[in-house]
Every structure is written in structure tokens, then in C-alpha cells.
Specification:
The chain is mainly α. The chain has helices at about 5-10, 15-20, 25, 30-35, 40-55, 65-80, 85-95, 100-130, 135-165. Helix 4 (about 30-35) packs across helix 5. The protein is flat and about 120 Å long.
Amino acid sequence: METMIDCTICRTHLADLLLEPGYLAAHPEYATHMSACAECSTEWKELQAAFSALDSWTAPEPSAYFDTRLKARLREAAAAQPEGFWERARAWFQFSTGRSFRPVLAGALSLVVLISGAGGALVMFHQQENDHPVSSTAVNDLKILDNNAQALQQMDQLLDTDDDGATDAPTT
């Protein structure tokens, strides 16, 4: 059963087809797609032509005195004294290995961690001391309504006990 290959899948596999020997033989569906699709076959031929041109290209040889001149320029750059403080600092950061800077940096970072941890602990301790629940306005309103309802119930109970047959005047 042969699967249908669209152009996007074929184009993503063009590098594999070109660089891995035997990939095209293992996946003949790409060859059938390229025989049917003019765009993919054109791109395939252009890639083959570019790679064959790259295979025939040779890198130019450096001049005979390249290494000597490079070493001389590096020695001059290392020996030259920078003009001011900022130039010396920049050169030290640029050319040093940083081994002498590492203990200072480690100490500074541990001091920052210690200070931030102590500050965080103080803030948490201060929040726990003053931590009392604050009710929202809706909760406060509900409490007031509940108190009012209790007061009304008590008033109703007082009025009911007065009407239960306790009369001050004699009935005739």
C-alpha cells in the first residue's frame, strides 16, 4: 500500500534524501511524488546542483605568515597598557580567566541570599504578629442583620409573654 506524500512532507525530507545514501531507495514514495510534482522535482534538482558545486569547491589556503602575524598581534594586544581605569577594568574582564573574581562573586551572592532570607523571615514574623482576621463588608453586614433578627425575636418574645393572659385589669 502506497501512502500519499504532499509537498510539505517531501520538502522536509529533501535533505535526508540528499545526504543519507539509500534513503531514496528505502522510501520510493518520495521518488513517485517528485516524478508527479514539478515544484518538488525542480527543488530536488537545484539542491543536487548546489551540493555538487559545493563538492567541487576548495577552501583557499591561508598565507604562509598568517600564524606568525596573528601571534604577534595577540602579543601586542596583551602587552599594551590600557589608558584609564575603565579601559583596564574592561581589559581585565575581557582577558582574565575570572578565577580571582569567583570567590568575591560567591561571597557577594551568599551575602545577598543571607540578607534576603533574613528580610523575608522578619516580614513573615511581623505579619504573623499582626495577623488577625479582617472581615469583609458583606460579612459585617450579615452579622448586623443577624443581631437585628435576634433583637426582633427577643422583642417578639417579650410582647408574646405580656399577651398570654397576664392582665392587670379585672375582666367583668
